[in-house]
Amino acid sequence: MEKENKSGERWKRLKEELEFKKSAVWPELSHPEREEASRFAEEYKEFLNKAKTEREAVRELVAMAETNGFVSLDQMTAKGRKLRPGNKVYAVNREKNLALIIIGKEPMWRSMNVIGSHIDSPRLDLKPMPLYESQGLGLLKTHYYGGIKKYHWLSYPLAMHGLVVKQNGEKVDIRIGDKENDPVFVITDLLPHLAKEQLKKKLGEAVSGEALNILAGTLPLEEKEAPERVKLAILELLKLKYGIIEEDLTSAELELVPATPARDIGFDRSLVGAYGQDDRICAYTSLRAVLECSNPARTAVALFVDKEETGSTGNTGMRSRFFENTIAELLYFVTGDYDEIYCRKALANGRALSADVSAAVDPTWEDVHDKYNAARVGYGIVMTKYTGSGGKYSTSEAGAEFVADIRKVFNENKIIWQTGELGKVDQGGGGTIAQFMARYGMDVLDCGPAVLSMHSPVEIAHKGDIYMSFKAYRAFLNS
Ligand code: MN
Ligand code: MN
After folding, report:
1. Which helix (H) or strand (E) holds 91?
2. 137 in the same domain as 44
3. Are 233 and 203 contained in the same domain?
């Protein structure tokens, strides 16, 4: 034995003891765990199919939370009732932004655990005056939302989701294109035969923002003398079906999203391909984690925000005050009193995971990544110490102490994790809500699964990573 160690086997020992081991998730899972991970992915796909917009996501998340014993904060605290450790409450902001909270045994101002994800995804929004007629076709003007590659949205079946609010406040829900027999909408593309000039253009300039027009109908009114007969016929149809007039579209939020449902990908069905996995993959896994958390030591918060894809601005984005207002309200109902210093302490002493997806290295485009630091699909949840671009501009970098803290939690709970960085230095970059959570002074680490084809109509995630993210978030909330 001695002799063996001194000669050829020494490197094996060094490798074992010193090197960071990156492992693929699936081979590390036991058979029952693989079954659980597969089942989890099925439930996740159902959620994705139901929640294609931020409002739909809030609706689904609240429904699941209520089924699991969560009560709205207003209802729970009616008549000034105090909150106690173990109480499960939720607060909704304008149907697009949600916080789920389990009151911990320890005082909130000493420390709480927060997981923040976003539930908006890149898409096309209808403009306030969308409907027009040209060349006998009824069309709808759109304004894209978030970072899209515009060519992805041409010649692709699209569904229309959202709502129209009438002047009297009545809300009309619209959801067309998901059922098998529903019609879908589509943006036409130029035939290659006549695309000589278009094909000479740079990829980013070949399709302009104003070219993202939705084909919406062709049947004209019967009255031949009427102008814009197709447009009028579509308006008549909208009146008959939804009771709305053109002016109602000015107070509407109608979003065009891919009509295709979530599907398994590959011979081995190891991947999920679906629209909106950035970042509903983190929304769903963190929801499931909070549902399995009971009587935590630290108050557990799962936060779901809107408008991340456009800079976290607005009254439902991470930069709004919803989160701190909710914490202030919680403190009031826990103590029966309110002292701002405790609210500030609660926020500043918080531990947070910014739960968002990371870019997985794609072998076809691998030269945009530093292969030593890129995340891979199937290799577990990704810790991203910093985001940003160039010289770490606009980053929120997690402190080494906090990364060590989370690393310990993950290792003690047998979470398979890896590190990641968004591409090579100076290749581009991006940010998450981490920087806006960090403003409160809390520790924040970006932590989520890696996906392929991010921001495309079919984003791809690994079932092993989906399951591992859930386990990682659960371990964090219980830490
Ligand atoms: Mn994201
Ligand atoms: Mn994104």
Report:
1. strand 88-93
2. no
3. yes
Residue 430 pLDDT grade (very low, low, confident, very high; cuts 50, 70, 90): confident
Task: Among 207, 231, 258, identify where a domain stops.
Answer: 258
pLDDT at 163: 98
Does 229 share its domain with 344? Answer: no
162 inside domain: yes
Task: Give me the phi and psi of 61, to 5 degrees please.
Answer: -65, -45
Q: How far is the CA of 88 from the centre of ligand 2 (A)?
A: 30
Residue closest to 478 by CA, chosen among 287, 323, 271, 298: 298
Domain closes at, from 228, 258, 288: 258
Which CATH number belongs to the domain containing residue 232 in this structure?
2.30.250.10
**Given a cut of 80, is residue 83 above it in pLDDT?**
yes
Tell me phi and psi for residue 154, to 5 degrees: -85, 145
Number of separate domains in the chain: 2
Sequence letter at residue 307? K
CA of 136 to the centre of ligand 2 (A): 37
Alpha carbon of 38 to ligand 1 centroid (Å): 24
Residue at 257: amino acid letter: V
* CA distance linking residue 22 with residue 15, whole number of Å: 12
State percent of the chain over pLDDT 90. Answer: 92
Average pLDDT, the chain: 96
pLDDT score of 3 more than 80: no
* Whether residue 313 sits in one domain with residue 444: yes
Distance from the alpha carbon of residue 95 to the mean position of ligand 2, in angstroms: 20
Residue 306 Cα to ligand 1 midpoint, Å, equals 11
**C-alpha 148 to ligand 1 mean position (Å):** 13
- 1 lies in a domain? no
Same domain, 416 and 280: yes
pLDDT band, residue 5 (cuts 50/70/90): low
Domain containing residue 225: 124-258
**Is 424 a residue whose pLDDT tops 70?**
yes
pLDDT digits (tens, 9 = 90+) for 25-68: 999 999 999 999 999 999 999 999 999 999 999 999 999 999 99
Number of alpha carbons in the 13 Å side-chain half-sphere of residue 19? 9
Q: Is residue 88 part of a domain?
A: yes
How many residues in the chain? Answer: 479
Query: Residue 283: nearest ligand to its CA?
Result: 1
